[in-house]
Amino acid sequence: MKVTSQWKPSRLPVLVGLAAVLTMLLVLMGSSGAPAQPPKADPANCAAGRTVPASKISIQLWTFNRYIGSGERADEAPDGAPGPEATTAERLEFVFAFLSDAGYTKIEPFSFHGLTVEEFDALAKEYGLKVPSRHMSTNPATWEANLADAKLLGQHMTGSGGFAPPGIGSYENTLATAATLNELGELSVKNGTGPIFGHNHRAEFTTMYVDAQGDGTLKSAWQILVENTDPRYVDFQLDVGWATIAGEDAAALIEQYGDRISSLHVKDAIVIVTDQEWEQTTIGQGDVDWEAVFEAAQGKVRYYTIEQDPPVEPFSFAAESFRYVDCLVF
Fold first, then answer.
1. Which of 40, 183, 275, 278 has the highest count of CB atoms within 10 angstroms of its CB?
2. Element (H, E) at 205
3. Residues 105 and 183 grouped into a single domain
4. CA 285 – CA 328 distance, rounded (Å)
C-alpha cells in the first residue's frame, strides 16, 4: 500500500507492527490456507563441548536394505511404515522421510532400488538429503557410467563396499588392486567427483604378506594398499567396526594414516573373540572407544557414516546412533 502525505509519522510504528503480524500469519497459513508445519529444528548437541557436527554425519543405506527391499521388520518400524505389500519406492521414500526427521542431511547409497539415478536424486533432494559418497561397482568396464551417475548426484568421493579387482587373494593381486585403484581414482578426480576410496572388512587387516617389492617386512594387505596408491587419487573409508573385530586399534590407525582416511564407517561391535566371534550393535554400546576415535579423526575425516549390517531393526538403530554420534563430547 502506498503511503501518502495524509498519513501522520506517529502512526507508522503501528502500521509496521500490523504488517509484521500479517506477514507472520501468511507464513503460518501457507499458500493452501492451512497452518504450515513449523520449521524443523536443527539437531541439538546434548552437552557443551566438541562433538561431531550433524552436517558431517551420514548413514549407509545398507542398514535399511532388508526393509527397503522386502519390507522385512516393518512390524517394528514407526507407525505408518509401508509393509511388504507396498512398493520398494514407497518404502524408500518412508526411509528418507524418517532419516530427515531424525536429523540426517546425508546418505550413502549402495543401490538406486529400481529408480533411475535422476529419480533417486530428486527423491533424496525432496527430503533434504545429499549424497557425498556412494558404494558403487568398481568394474573398470562400467566405471565411466558410474562416474556419470556420481556427477549427477554431486558426490565428493567414489568407491565401493570393498576394493577394486582383482582383490587381495595374493601379494601380486594386492599390488594389482592398488594399480587399478590408481587408474579409477585418477578418472574420478578428472570427473570432478573426487578420489576413489577403498573400504575394509576384516580380511584387509588379517591377510598378511611379506612386502617383497617394498621394504621386505610383513604387512597387512591394507597397509600394502595404502603404500602403493597415489594419495592424489586414492583414499580410504575406514570401517571402524570391522577394524576393531580384526584386532586393530582404529584410533591409532587414524593417527598414523589420517591423511589417507577421508571417511569412517561408524560401526560398533561387541568382540567376544578377536576375528572369530562378535556381534554388531548400536553405536556406543560396543567395544569401540569412540571418544578416542573421534579425537583422532578431528580435522582429518570428512564424513562419519553410520552403519550396521543386517539383520538389524534399522529405524531405532539409525535414530539412537545419530544422537550418540552427534552428542558425544570428545
1. 278
2. helix 203-206
3. yes
4. 13
CATH number of the domain encompassing residue 198: 3.20.20.150
For residue 27, name the pLDDT band (cuts at 50, 70, 90): very low
Is 49 domain-assigned? no
Q: Examine the domain organization and report whether 206 and 315 are in the same domain.
A: yes
- Domain range holding 3? 1-39
Residue 55: closest CA among 99, 104, 95: 104
User: Is residue 104 in a domain?
Assistant: yes
Residue 286 and residue 217 in one domain = yes
DSSP letters, 81-140, are ---TTS-HHHHHHHHHHHHHHHT--B-B-S--TTS-HHHHHHHHHHTT-B-S-------G
The pLDDT of 53-76, averaged and rounded, is: 97
pLDDT in tens, 29-40: 343 333 333 333
pLDDT tens column, 112-163:
999 999 999 999 999 999 999 999 999 999 999 999 999 999 999 999 999 9
Give the whole-angstrom CA distance, residue 307 versus residue 304: 10
Angle (CA) 302 303 307, round 5°: 160
CA–CA gap between residue 66 and residue 25 (Å, rounded): 44
- For cell 509519522, name the residue: 9
For 205-216, how does the pLDDT look when each residue is reduced to its tens digit (9 = 90+)?
Answer: 999 999 999 999
Q: All 3 cell numbers of residue 41?
A: 529444528
Same domain, 315 and 255: yes
In this predicted model, what pLDDT tens digit does every residue of 270-302 receive, in sequence order? 999 999 999 999 999 999 999 999 999 999 999
Nearest to 235 by CA among 127, 137, 163, 154: 163
Please check whether residue 322 is in contact with residue 57, taking contact to mean a CB–CB distance below 8 angstroms.
yes
Specify whether the CB–CB gap between 328 and 284 falls below 8 A. Answer: yes
Bridge partners, residue 269, by sequence: 280
Q: What are the Cα distances from residue 228, in Å, to 175, 213, 304?
A: 7, 10, 25
Q: How many domains does the chain have?
A: 2
